[in-house]
Amino acid sequence: MGTSTESLVSARGLAKRFGDFDAVRGIDLDVRPGEAFGFLGPNGAGKSSTMRMIACVSPRTGGELTVLGMDPSRDGPAIRGRLGVVPQQDNLDTELTVRENLHVYGRYFGLSKAHVRAKATELIEFAQLADRSDAEVETLSGGMKRRLTIARSLINDPELLLLDEPTTGLDPQARHLLWDRLFRLKQQGVTLIVTTHYMDEAEQLCDRLVVMDAGRIVAEGSPAELIAQHSTREVLELRFAAGTQDEQAVEGLAERVEVLPDRLLLYTTDGEASLAAVHRRGLTPVSSLVRRSTLEDVFLRLTGRTLVD
């Protein structure tokens, strides 16, 4: 981790409690200028609670937190003026047009009408909404609304952009377009903090990330570092008829074996060699697949496969 003087966000022992429930249990983190930093975790892990404290809309219960070198408990308004925030749910004014949403929001920051007009035109182009600029928000698709919400968050030229589950509910095309817009922002020097439970999104967007579970950070690093630390180079998936897979039959063929209802996952450095060994033992899976380990393998190993509501 970097030191707090190098960090746009620095936390030490950061905690958030709601009554008897500890949502965030004393985490340490640093977010460096210009990077895309991710919070990855299942529902209820504490990601959104942490983001709300960083956004200065929820007071911390314990620990230390600085954002842009300031204390949120004392300098909340000053910090919020330099942040961009994209909430989980779009909260646009649906009866206003695309351009009017940007104009109204810009005025909240005390920006001049001329500045807001020029900035709105720039952001409408950035969000690829030029042909819908005078359309009411209510008529837009989900992907368009999401792009507008991101465009609106940039009206004050923020140094730090917070995005809470930015692509939830979007189709693949809309997600990839959104990733492209966020990558361009990062190239322009905007620091991004993203929460997500999509593994591919974390791998696409994040230079570094933390995996949270039950209010704690259970791993930290780049996607490649996390895969190297917590998984193997490859995974061999052996699919069997339901209930016929036998973990003991592949004993010794992999560093770790995971048993699922219809298949065995063999975590190994060489999937093809492990598959050859499987065949030498006379095993005949319905199908087999050798693939690279992914962040999803890391995530499931660290947080488990049990559904969290």
UniProtKB/TrEMBL annotation:
Localisation per UniProt entry: Cell membrane
Domain ABC transporter: 9-239
Signal sequence range: none
Highest rank taxon of the organism: Bacteria
Spans traversing the lipid bilayer: none
Keywords, comma-separated and alphabetical: Antibiotic resistance, ATP-binding, Cell membrane, Membrane, Nucleotide-binding, Translocase, Transport
Annotated SMART domains: AAA
Family: Belongs to the ABC transporter superfamily.
Protein name: Lipooligosaccharide transport system ATP-binding protein
